[in-house]
UniProtKB/TrEMBL annotation:
Domain annotation FAD/NAD(P)-binding: ranges: 2-212
Record's protein name: Oxidoreductase
Recorded GO MF terms: oxidoreductase activity
Organism encoding this protein: Streptomyces cellostaticus
Lineage: superkingdom: Bacteria
Phylogenetic placement of the source organism: Bacteria, Bacillati, Actinomycetota, Actinomycetes, Kitasatosporales
InterPro entries linked to this entry: FAD/NAD-bd_sf, FAD/NAD-binding_dom
Amino acid sequence: MIGAGPYGLSVAAHLRAAGVPVRIFGEVMDSWRHAMATGMFLKSTPDATDLSAPEPGGRLADFRKVRGESELTELTPIPCDVFVRYGQWFQKRYVGDVEPAKVAGVDRDPGAPGFVVGLDDGRQLTAAAVVVATGLNGLAYLPKELLRLTPEGPAAGALVSHTSHHSDLSQYAGQRIAVIGGGQSALESSALLHEAGAHVEVLVRERRVLWGSVPRLDRPWPQRLAQPASPLGTGWTLAAICEAPGGVRLLPAAARLLLFRRALGPSGGWWLRDRVEGVVPVRTSCRVIRAEASGSTARLEITRPGGSERLVVDHVLAATGYRLDIDALAFLAPALRRGIVCVPRSKAPQLSSTFETTVPGLYITGSLAAPMFGPMMRFVAGTEYAAARIARDASRWVVAP
Ligand SMILES: Cc1cc2nc3c(=O)[nH]c(=O)nc-3n(C[C@H](O)[C@H](O)[C@H](O)COP(=O)(O)OP(=O)(O)OC[C@H]3O[C@@H](n4cnc5c(N)ncnc54)[C@H](O)[C@@H]3O)c2cc1C
């Protein structure tokens, strides 16, 4: 098992419950501790934030109850640190040992069916099956216009960085920062930067910023019928996607990719609106067409409907999302990667109904599975569908002693 985030822990919990010998590599809830800024909240609601346990009692609500903490409702955004503590509790309760080593290589075992797994400390082991649950690690996307600011690659110290490089935005206090993007990451980062004393401006491609609406706990039935609730929001399309990820997999590839790209556009959580609107300057309908370093500053050329403008800042924070690209999983040996057939017109893996790639015994879950099973796999809510299926199928590779 490569990865100990929500997906890795959920699959591992099911494997351990089934008595399958499994070793789990990765840092528990790593992305939530190190790739998200302090002070962030989850956009998803408590009901959509449960890991998948092999028996009742492992939901976020159960964790809160056991710890004597108050119940969360749709009207209480979940702080990231609550979710991290929930993941750690889940790991102790359902998973047990997790090895914090990084997997540096996975290749076919030349001497037997299965795989050779190399760790970054030089150790090697063999495995009958491998499950990849590395989330968005290594998949951060930086538009080519920004690459000139960072010939050495984006990093916290460079003129441009990606939101996933930061766990503390207060280092930018007093500096001029351009945040590129119009989704939750951009908007929440801009609020945190502003609150830390930075001079922030958000540059958004879309004509306007979209905000989620304040949830109503007591929706009358006609409204519930017209706009059914789902872990991803309200509406029939989202409800269908969440109800039947297996059905999504059977759609033609072009339809699945369309769903993947369009079903959930960029928007900000309802609870964030007051911290951004009228507080942080936001330029909409604008596109950065050139970015150049000038001494210790970044000069941006921006086009807007009325013409072009320039902006000089001390740092550019790219909240420009992630690209699903199997080639970015550098730990997979090139020959192994070549054996993984991708969804047409994408670099995401084609997967069986049990998340197995076209390399027998190699499974991929989480965001990389979204072009097959739909947008729910981009979120914690997808663990319920994925975990038991993968665990059941992967256990068939284990030869009884
Ligand atoms: C800013 C932000 C906010 C988000 N908010 C929400 C939200 O509110 N609700 C929601 O449902 N989803 C949210 N998401 C999506 C979120 O990433 C996923 O829902 C969830 O974390 C996916 O879990 P995962 O297990 O696939 O990956 P991750 O949580 O990213 O876990 C990856 C694991 O892989 C390990 N790993 C990586 N590389 C290696 C390696 N080479 N060897 C060993 N281990 C490795 C890491 O240590 C880690 O344990 C958000 C994402 C971002 C970026």
